[in-house]
Structures are given as structure tokens and as C-alpha cells.
Amino acid sequence: MTTTRLRGVFSPVLTPFNADLTPSVERFTRHCRWLLEQDVGLSIFGTNSEATSLTLAEKRRLLDALLEAGLPAARMMPGTGACALGDAIELTRHAVEAGCGGVLMLPPFYYKGVSDEGLFRSFATVIDAVADERLKIYLYHIPPVTQVPISLGLIERLLKAYPGTIAGVKDSSGDWNNTEAMLRNFQPQGFDVFAGSETFLLANMRGGGVGCITATGNVNPAPMVALYDSWQQEGADEQQHALDATRAVFQQFPLIPAMKAAIAWKTGDAAWRAVRPPLVELDAAQAQTLEGGLERLGFDMPYVEDLM
Amino acid sequence: MTTTRLRGVFSPVLTPFNADLTPSVERFTRHCRWLLEQDVGLSIFGTNSEATSLTLAEKRRLLDALLEAGLPAARMMPGTGACALGDAIELTRHAVEAGCGGVLMLPPFYYKGVSDEGLFRSFATVIDAVADERLKIYLYHIPPVTQVPISLGLIERLLKAYPGTIAGVKDSSGDWNNTEAMLRNFQPQGFDVFAGSETFLLANMRGGGVGCITATGNVNPAPMVALYDSWQQEGADEQQHALDATRAVFQQFPLIPAMKAAIAWKTGDAAWRAVRPPLVELDAAQAQTLEGGLERLGFDMPYVEDLM
Questions:
Q1: What's the gap in Å between the CA of B172 and the closest CA on chain A?
Q2: Which of A176, A177, B48, B229 is the most exposed place for a label (fewest CB within 10 A)?
């Protein structure tokens, strides 16, 4: 892994599928390349990547395909957490050996009400098994989905035990008070706080954070990167409001199918609509409402021809 | 798979580990054999088996070990559901080809708030991919853990689409009204309702159900089987109360570590205490409290020498 820390706007890269719902390696690679052109980092295998709907073998193949296509591992932060720690170890090791800039790690998420001691042991088991000083872990706090929070106390303990390895967090709690507490308690120790969506991008930068990792980076990257680049300048609040307005249009619908529908619309490639069960693609009426809402905002995907 | 439907008391078989937390195949096989001797069926790879903490390869090896040891596949109902449907398909296919009496299937459980349409497609994808008329699926409804309920509407739709394959349910909602609704709506169509714990064993039998699949079957099997065998006779309510009293002692603590502690105590094999993260084994004081509570009830594990 690189010694330069990851910062900026990252996106959990959507995973496009073929008609038989196998991953479309070709569309995936093109989408990753397009994101990098917009200066968006690659959080492949995140929640919005339908990563938990992919087998370990499928994830290994997709990561390998990006590397074979010459995409820079240093700009990648693959999601490697899993319920079975053996799976988490295998994918984390693969990412480290590939030179990924970091990994984004879910806690085991099946059992609920588990203790901080149990979660500490979970992360420690993976770190000790991978046993590589290049490993940089970004903890993935997303209690609305996992129902397994990563508490401030757990972070403190992990940072103390593995100071060189625990690199930061993606805070997808949606609770700004929590992000603020992470910024206050841990950012000064070099623990890098990424907001879990662009909704908190400006607030996070003002609070000393390092950027955001956001689903809608898949479809609206340019204005996010623009705000990240100029957050200290005049007009930043207006930029944030514009980002919020675009996100609100997507959030009328389940986010993953809505983003895929938007890419299908802009590229003219209907295959992009496909999602794996238990998700369901938008129907025609929903897609039309989405398109209308985005058109009213003058929504644009620069260089979309690169995706076609 | 057999044409005889599964009924009676089943247990999600605890998965014992070695000191390095690899599965102890030898203890596992002995425990399965002991359960069969008590007339308890083998729901290997359930919630209380720490199944989601096992890799797919580990589960395949454990199932194969039981078959190689000559244990009857017809008495097995392995848990085969997974977030990634590719994993669910692989393990389900393996179970069917091995001749298992049925499989217990979790829905994909990472995404929350998913639609019945998405869950229908999830089960349908597995059924269509396995494409084997021997397949008998028991739906695993355990919303306190998955947070992804299997609704009555979903069952109705699945039963209509796959009448020969959708065989029943384990209802671990803890909500008797829900079990009663399943019994009323679907048991008459041959959809077999298992209570999700022995707490509802008697009520479920009186309501027309076929038994229970229960964690504490791992440690207290004999009295459960006795109630199942004689639920129509006098004294059944007292038997149920005795079962409830024993369960209450275990439920003072997280159930999986508590059951493993009890087996370690009764067999004198301390290795039985081990759990995988994110779970944590009972500490010495907790184990002592547990043992004291069980001793006061005259708790016994018949033929425990077979486990040693």
C-alpha cells in the first residue's frame, strides 16, 4: 500500500451486470476508469456496489480485472469485511498484495447486540492473519444497514492496539454528532474521517475531515470533486446545496436501482438497469420520474461517452 | 432427498472449534451423532451453529465429514441461505446431492427494507438454479437477527410458484401470533411449521405444527423429544414449563457461548467453550452462575459420555 494517505471523494463503485446477472467486467472497468477521470477514488465492493451479493470469487475476479486493465491500485479502497472472518482475511490479503491504498471494512454483521470486545477481536483476527504493515483499514460504520455499530470506544481501542493499521473511518451513520465526535477524538491522531455521503462533505472538511465516500459519486462526481477542491472558497455553501438537491431526486427511490437507471438513461445502455436480488430495478414509471427530476436540475454526467 | 417429510425436534448444531478456531470436525461429528441418539434432527449451519462465521469451504467440509462418518443425510436440514445467492446455490446444490432431508434458508440479510418482490426473486433464483425436484426448502424467518422478515404474503406467493419445493418454515420471530397465522394459512397445504424454539413447542403441536428447531436442543434434547412424543397426553403443560425453566437459565447469557460452556462443563472438554468473533465465550464467573442455575434444576445431559 502507498504511504500517501487516501483523501478526497470516493465512490462505492456500482457493479454492472450482464443479462444473466453475472458481473459485467467490461462495464465495470469502464465505469472505474470514468470515475478516476473525474478524480473519484474507487471504493469497489461497498454497500452500493451490491458487494454482499457477490461471491468472494466474483470479487477477486473483478479486482483482478481492474489491475489487469492497468487501473492504479493506490486509488482503490475495496470493501473486504464479511460475516465469516476467513472471507475477510482472504480478500483483505488479496487487496494488500495488489497494492490497494486501503480497505474499507464492515464488521461481521449477522449477529446483533454483539460486544465491543467481540468486534475488537474480529478486526484483530483479520489484522493479525494478514500480518502486513502495508495494510490500512478504514472502519465502515453503517448502523442503518449492519445494525452493528462501531463505537467510539471500539475505535479508541483499535487505534491503540494497531496505530499504523487503523487508518480511518467511513461514517455512514447519518448522524452528524457522531461524525463530529470522531473528528474531535481521533482525526488529530491521523485517523482519517470520511463522511459517509456528500451530504456532510462540506461540514466534514470544515471539521478537519478528509473527504467523503458516497454512493452518488457514481452519477454526480464532478460537482462533488469541485466542492472538495474549493471548500474554503466563497460559494461552498451553495455548492453543497446543489449537491443536496441532486441527491434528493435520487433518494426518492431505492438508491442503487435509481443510480443504475440514471446511468442506463445517460448512456443508452439498458443493461445498466440490472440489480441482483434482493434488490429490484426501477420500473418504467419510476425511471421516468427520476429522469424528469434530474432534467429539471440540469443534471449532467460529463464525459458520459466514455461510459458508452 | 426423502419423500418423508421432516418432523420432530431439530437443533441448529453447535460448531465446536479447535484452539486455533478452525472447526473441530471430530467434536462436531460426535455431537451430531449424540443428537441423533436423542432423536434430534440435525439443522447444521443454523444461527446457533455460527454458520455465518464459517466460510463456504468450511461448511462443505463439515457436511462432507458427517456423510463420510455415515450419518444419515435424511435427518439433516443444513442452513444454506446467504447474502450472495451464488453461495446459497452452491451449498444448497451440495446438500440436495448429498440427500439431505431439507435445507433451512435465510433470505439475503445485508440490505434492509427490501421488497417481497426482491425476496421472492432471491428464493426463486436459488430454486431455479438448483433445479432439482428433491429440493425441500424450509424458509427461515428470524427477523430479530436478519431484520429481513419473511412475510405471509411472500410465503403465499412462493408456495404458489413452487408448491413441491417450499416445504415449510422455521418461525424464529418469537411472536406466537405470527406462528399461529402460518399454521392457519399454510399448514393445511402441507407447509410444515416448525416453532423457532421449544418455548412454543407445545403450542405449535396443538396448533397443527410439526415440531421445533431449537438452539437448546444442543444441551437439553431429551425432555424436548419427550414432550414432542407425548404432547397429547396428560402432563404436557408441566413438561413445557420445565423446558421453559431450563431455557431461562441459559438465556441469562448470550445463548451460543452459554450452551458451549454447558457442554464444556458436562464433558470436561474446555475446548468446547470456544466461539468465533464477534461472539465472546463466557467468563469464569458467568460459567459458574450458569452451572449453579442448571444444578438447581437437576439439569442432566444423558449419554454425555458419548460426547467426551
A1: 14
A2: A177
